Amino acid sequence: MGNGTDQGIDLGAMVKLPIDLNMRMLDLASFFLGVKEKGQNQGSIIETFQRAVDGVAQGEAWCLNMLQYIALETSKVHSYQIDLPKTEGVIRFWNAISDRNKMITPKPGHWVLWDMGNGKGHCGIIRQIISTNMITIEGNTASEKEEGVFMKSRSLANKKVLGFIKVFHTN
User: Fold this and answer.
1) Edge-to-edge order in the sheet of strand 102-103
2) Structure confidence by residue, pLDDT tens digits, 96-110
3) SS3 letters for the chain?
4) Three-state secondary-structure class, residue 161
5) pLDDT tens, 51-88?
Protein backbone atom coordinates (compact mmCIF):
# COMPACT_ATOMS: atom_id res chain seq x y z
CA MET A 1 0.00 0.00 0.00
CA GLY A 2 1.02 3.61 -0.26
CA ASN A 3 0.86 4.71 -3.88
CA GLY A 4 -2.80 3.95 -4.51
CA THR A 5 -2.09 1.36 -7.20
CA ASP A 6 -1.26 -1.74 -5.15
CA GLN A 7 -4.80 -3.10 -5.60
CA GLY A 8 -4.99 -2.18 -9.27
CA ILE A 9 -6.81 1.08 -8.50
CA ASP A 10 -5.43 4.19 -10.14
CA LEU A 11 -6.54 6.96 -7.77
CA GLY A 12 -5.25 9.58 -10.18
CA ALA A 13 -7.79 8.42 -12.76
CA MET A 14 -10.76 8.64 -10.37
CA VAL A 15 -13.40 11.15 -11.31
CA LYS A 16 -13.38 14.24 -9.12
CA LEU A 17 -16.75 15.05 -7.63
CA PRO A 18 -17.85 18.61 -8.30
CA ILE A 19 -17.50 20.98 -5.37
CA ASP A 20 -20.14 23.66 -4.97
CA LEU A 21 -17.97 26.65 -4.16
CA ASN A 22 -21.04 28.67 -3.16
CA MET A 23 -21.57 26.15 -0.36
CA ARG A 24 -17.86 26.38 0.58
CA MET A 25 -18.41 30.13 1.03
CA LEU A 26 -21.31 29.32 3.31
CA ASP A 27 -19.05 27.02 5.35
CA LEU A 28 -16.52 29.83 5.74
CA ALA A 29 -19.22 32.36 6.67
CA SER A 30 -20.44 29.90 9.35
CA PHE A 31 -16.94 29.84 10.80
CA PHE A 32 -17.22 33.58 11.53
CA LEU A 33 -20.58 33.37 13.33
CA GLY A 34 -20.32 35.17 16.66
CA VAL A 35 -17.45 37.48 15.69
CA LYS A 36 -18.21 40.80 17.38
CA GLU A 37 -17.07 44.34 16.77
CA LYS A 38 -14.61 45.94 19.20
CA GLY A 39 -15.91 49.49 18.94
CA GLN A 40 -17.92 50.72 15.96
CA ASN A 41 -16.92 48.82 12.80
CA GLN A 42 -13.62 47.80 14.42
CA GLY A 43 -11.78 44.68 15.52
CA SER A 44 -9.00 42.61 13.96
CA ILE A 45 -11.28 40.24 12.04
CA ILE A 46 -13.59 43.09 11.00
CA GLU A 47 -10.57 45.01 9.69
CA THR A 48 -9.47 41.92 7.72
CA PHE A 49 -12.90 41.93 6.06
CA GLN A 50 -12.67 45.68 5.38
CA ARG A 51 -9.32 45.29 3.61
CA ALA A 52 -10.70 42.60 1.25
CA VAL A 53 -11.88 45.06 -1.40
CA ASP A 54 -9.43 47.98 -1.35
CA GLY A 55 -6.71 47.04 1.13
CA VAL A 56 -7.87 49.70 3.61
CA ALA A 57 -9.75 49.48 6.90
CA GLN A 58 -11.22 52.87 7.80
CA GLY A 59 -14.12 51.97 10.07
CA GLU A 60 -16.51 51.61 7.11
CA ALA A 61 -19.64 49.43 7.09
CA TRP A 62 -18.47 45.90 6.33
CA CYS A 63 -21.33 43.54 5.45
CA LEU A 64 -20.30 43.39 1.78
CA ASN A 65 -16.61 43.34 2.69
CA MET A 66 -17.20 40.14 4.67
CA LEU A 67 -18.90 38.47 1.71
CA GLN A 68 -16.17 39.61 -0.67
CA TYR A 69 -13.55 38.29 1.76
CA ILE A 70 -15.13 34.82 1.95
CA ALA A 71 -15.54 34.75 -1.85
CA LEU A 72 -11.90 35.70 -2.42
CA GLU A 73 -10.64 33.17 0.14
CA THR A 74 -12.81 30.42 -1.35
CA SER A 75 -11.54 31.23 -4.83
CA LYS A 76 -7.90 31.11 -3.66
CA VAL A 77 -8.28 27.77 -1.88
CA HIS A 78 -9.93 26.18 -4.92
CA SER A 79 -7.85 27.99 -7.58
CA TYR A 80 -10.96 29.46 -9.16
CA GLN A 81 -10.88 32.93 -10.67
CA ILE A 82 -13.74 35.31 -9.86
CA ASP A 83 -14.40 38.84 -11.02
CA LEU A 84 -16.47 40.79 -8.50
CA PRO A 85 -17.05 44.55 -8.65
CA LYS A 86 -14.46 46.36 -6.54
CA THR A 87 -16.83 48.32 -4.35
CA GLU A 88 -17.86 48.34 -0.71
CA GLY A 89 -21.30 49.74 -1.51
CA VAL A 90 -24.14 47.20 -1.78
CA ILE A 91 -26.19 49.27 -4.26
CA ARG A 92 -23.14 49.97 -6.46
CA PHE A 93 -22.23 46.27 -6.27
CA TRP A 94 -25.71 45.21 -7.43
CA ASN A 95 -25.63 47.69 -10.31
CA ALA A 96 -22.14 46.58 -11.40
CA ILE A 97 -22.39 42.77 -11.10
CA SER A 98 -22.92 40.77 -14.27
CA ASP A 99 -26.48 39.68 -15.03
CA ARG A 100 -25.08 36.13 -15.18
CA ASN A 101 -24.60 36.33 -11.40
CA LYS A 102 -28.11 37.60 -10.65
CA MET A 103 -30.52 34.85 -9.64
CA ILE A 104 -34.31 34.82 -9.52
CA THR A 105 -34.60 31.76 -7.27
CA PRO A 106 -32.36 31.98 -4.19
CA LYS A 107 -30.55 28.94 -2.85
CA PRO A 108 -28.21 28.28 0.07
CA GLY A 109 -24.81 29.78 -0.70
CA HIS A 110 -26.28 32.67 -2.71
CA TRP A 111 -25.98 36.24 -1.48
CA VAL A 112 -29.02 38.39 -0.76
CA LEU A 113 -28.78 42.18 -1.16
CA TRP A 114 -31.17 44.73 0.31
CA ASP A 115 -31.79 48.38 -0.54
CA MET A 116 -32.27 50.06 2.85
CA GLY A 117 -33.07 53.47 1.32
CA ASN A 118 -31.08 56.70 1.03
CA GLY A 119 -28.33 54.96 -0.97
CA LYS A 120 -27.61 52.45 1.79
CA GLY A 121 -27.71 48.69 1.45
CA HIS A 122 -27.12 45.52 3.40
CA CYS A 123 -26.31 41.94 2.44
CA GLY A 124 -25.83 38.42 3.72
CA ILE A 125 -25.32 34.86 2.56
CA ILE A 126 -28.27 32.47 2.54
CA ARG A 127 -27.89 29.46 4.80
CA GLN A 128 -31.33 27.94 4.38
CA ILE A 129 -34.70 28.53 2.73
CA ILE A 130 -37.71 27.61 4.87
CA SER A 131 -41.05 28.22 3.16
CA THR A 132 -41.22 32.00 2.62
CA ASN A 133 -38.24 32.81 4.82
CA MET A 134 -34.50 32.61 4.48
CA ILE A 135 -31.97 32.04 7.21
CA THR A 136 -28.95 34.22 6.52
CA ILE A 137 -25.50 34.86 7.90
CA GLU A 138 -24.84 38.60 7.93
CA GLY A 139 -21.92 40.74 8.95
CA ASN A 140 -22.25 44.24 10.43
CA THR A 141 -25.63 43.35 11.87
CA ALA A 142 -27.11 43.50 15.35
CA SER A 143 -27.99 40.78 17.81
CA GLU A 144 -29.42 42.20 21.00
CA LYS A 145 -26.97 45.03 21.79
CA GLU A 146 -23.93 43.78 19.89
CA GLU A 147 -22.81 44.23 16.29
CA GLY A 148 -21.05 41.42 14.49
CA VAL A 149 -21.65 38.29 12.41
CA PHE A 150 -24.99 36.72 13.25
CA MET A 151 -27.66 34.46 11.82
CA LYS A 152 -30.98 36.10 10.92
CA SER A 153 -34.38 34.96 9.69
CA ARG A 154 -35.69 37.19 6.90
CA SER A 155 -38.73 37.16 4.64
CA LEU A 156 -38.16 36.31 0.98
CA ALA A 157 -41.02 38.70 0.16
CA ASN A 158 -39.36 41.70 1.83
CA LYS A 159 -39.79 44.64 -0.57
CA LYS A 160 -36.27 45.87 0.24
CA VAL A 161 -34.66 42.82 -1.40
CA LEU A 162 -32.68 44.01 -4.44
CA GLY A 163 -31.93 40.48 -5.52
CA PHE A 164 -29.82 37.38 -5.16
CA ILE A 165 -26.26 36.71 -6.33
CA LYS A 166 -24.56 33.45 -7.26
CA VAL A 167 -20.82 34.09 -7.12
CA PHE A 168 -19.45 30.80 -8.45
CA HIS A 169 -20.62 29.07 -11.64
CA THR A 170 -18.69 25.80 -11.45
CA ASN A 171 -21.36 23.32 -12.48
Assistant:
1) 102-103, 161-165, 111-117, 120-130, 133-143, 146-155
2) 999 999 999 999 999
3) CCCCCCCCCCHHHCCCCCCCHHHHHHHHHHHCCCCECCCCCCCHHHHHHHHHHHCCCCCCCCHHHHHHHHHHHHHHHCCCCCCCCCCCCHHHHHHHCCHHHEECCCCCCCEEEEEEECCEEEEEEEEEEECCEEEEEEEEEEECCEEEEEEEEEECCCCCEEEEECCCCCC
4) strand
5) 999 999 999 999 999 999 999 999 999 999 998 999 99
